[in-house]
Amino acid sequence: MTQTRQRSATEYVVAPGAPSRHFNIVIVGGGSAGISVAARLANAIGAGNLAIIEPSRKHYYQPLWTLVGGGLAPKEESVRDEADFIPRGATWINEAVTEFRPDQNVVVTASGELIGYNYLVVATGLQVNWNGVKGLEGNVGKYGIVSNYDYAYCDKTFEAIKNLRGGTALFTMPATPIKCGGAPQKIAYLADDYWRRNGMRDRVKMIYLSGTPGIFTVKEYAASLAQVAQRKGIETRFKHNLIEIRPEQREAVFLNLETNEEVVLHFDMIHVTPPMSAPDVVRNSPLANQDGPTKGWVATDKHTLRHRVYRNVFAIGDVSDLPTSKTGAAIRKQAPVLVKNLLAVMREAQPSASYDGYTSCPLVTGKGKLILAEFDYDLKPKPTFPILDSTKEHWLFYQLKRRGLPLIYWYGMLRGRM
């Protein structure tokens, strides 16, 4: 990283033009990460001098969208009012941040307001780049093109699955980091399951194409998933990155990352996982890592979650450059570490809590079947329920995904209790 100077947590600078408002703690982002941190801080010290900057008036439980796309849940279950999760006493600034000025301890909102802070938590999530694949933007929901990565589109996936009467179905995974790295293959398994239960499977050729080198990063789970794909008759092609869709021709263009050659495939249905990145406002800010494979993401100490340069700044969740999968389960483990360390820094003590990289990806392999992949920074399995083999498909794991985890999310995690 090119930035090396570290600033004291109490080295505050007045911005040119005084901020119109100033808070002890400002959290940018009111999604899973931001609300989890806000709730824990409110429980610990109160929320009277805490601001949350979040433009959306709705809050989404995004892990449910895969099940929506597979026809196993209504999408309305995944959305609630953002206002219901703002901690009592906190100030909600219902705008987007357009600029970070960490040298001045200021953020700038879309309306041009300067908001000052003593401590900053960056929890913006990531950016879905629909324009990162030529021909994709504006065509999702048409020409057999679907995607679970937006509330507006996820139910269209099941419509396409139901209405397909045969042909070729493609499922893609980009070469970029994404939220929930297992989701692109989960919808393939659910589509296979639906077509089998409805006597359509032998009419559909299924291909899963990923820009990554393999089906999963952890070898124990990769072995099981390879067996699932083989059992279901799903062809897998790796190091194939989707770069273009020709909607009217129903053609998908992939770049073979080994040969640098283009591969054109016909489709009757294609589920696209769009490329993703850190939000532009983060990538273009001093908070971003300036070089290396994690360029653009917030430069975050992987154990303390403190910024590696700006010592009064912390980051959590998808926007960080932590070397782990970007999942809600990771956020659930990161939030208590961040809050404990932030409170320590506020007391001018050294942060002592440590995050070990735990993340989880509940891999639905069919209705009532799920492999619960849990692992840490070392890519070693870290099962919560060691009595069950987490590399195998289990009905109980599926029930946890469908019934248990949403309750934990809405009533535990977002209330700072779990």
Secondary-structure map:
Blueprint: E1 21-28, H1 32-45, E2 50-53, E3 58-60, H2 65-69, E4 79-81, E5 91-93, E6 97-101, E7 106-109, E8 114-122, E9 127-128, E10 145-146, H3 154-163, E11 167-173, H4 183-197, E12 204-210, H5 219-232, E13 235-238, E14 240-246, E15 251-256, E16 261-266, E17 269-271, E18 276-277, H6 280-283, E19 313-315, H7 328-346, E20 359-366, E21 369-375, H8 395-411
Parallel strand pairs: 1-2, 1-8, 2-5, 8-19, 10-17, 11-12, 11-17, 12-13
Antiparallel strand pairs: 3-4, 6-7, 7-8, 9-18, 14-15, 15-16, 20-21
Can you walk me through this structure?
By secondary structure, the chain is of the alpha/beta class. The chain folds into two domains: 21-126 and 278-356, FAD/NAD(P)-binding domain (3-Layer(bba) Sandwich), CATH 3.50.50.60; 129-275, FAD/NAD(P)-binding domain. It is 23% helix and 25% strand. It has eight helices and 21 strands. Helix 1 (32-45) packs parallel to helix 7.
CATH architecture of the largest domain: 3-Layer(bba) Sandwich
* Helix and strand run: EHEEHEEEEEEEHEHEHEEEEEEHEHEEH
Give the integer mean of the pLDDT values. 95
CATH-assigned homologous superfamily of the largest domain? FAD/NAD(P)-binding domain
Strand-residue proportion: 15-25%
* CATH third-level topology of the largest domain: FAD/NAD(P)-binding domain
Which ranges are low-confidence, i.e. pLDDT below 50, for 5 or more consecutive residues? 1-15
Number of discrete domains: 2
How would you classify the helix and strand content by structural class? alpha/beta
* Biggest sheet descriptor: 7 strands, mixed
